[in-house]
Design brief:
The protein is about 85% helix and about 0% strand. With about 160 residues, the protein is mainly alpha-helical.
Amino acid sequence: MGFSKNVRAISRFIPSWLGGAIVTTVLAVLLQTQAVISRLNGVGAEIGLGERLAMSAYDVFRLGSFYIIFIAIGMLAAYLSGLLVYRLVGFGRWIIFSVAGAVAMLVMLMAMKQAFFGIHMIAGARDGFGIGLQMLAGAVGGLVFAALTARFMDAKSKAA
């Protein structure tokens, strides 16, 4: 009985975790691409809507395929930590997971910088505003995770 309950919990957690990580990745890549384009516009480059869309699509598939690995690892730690916090306090699930996602992005960006010899690997996150945008993507991913696990977690807390 306990084994099947654990399998059921894992089978609900994994798709929710991946959903949150995918949403975070796509949003983070789009935000970083637009931040880079904004900087290019600031130095006189004229980038039209078609080029913006093409650059965004390219980055989602190219940068996203690399970035999702780091984000998925960070979100796994964030969501597991968030589950622990939620279990301890018993309320505020939406806030807990959005904060967990945002903090995971900050920690991940700083860890990537350390791992890659002090170089920010995400060009759109080289300043406070860009890092804030990445944290926003993480917060949205945390909200997606909270939404995908809402029915399961609410039923579990009512049963307890």
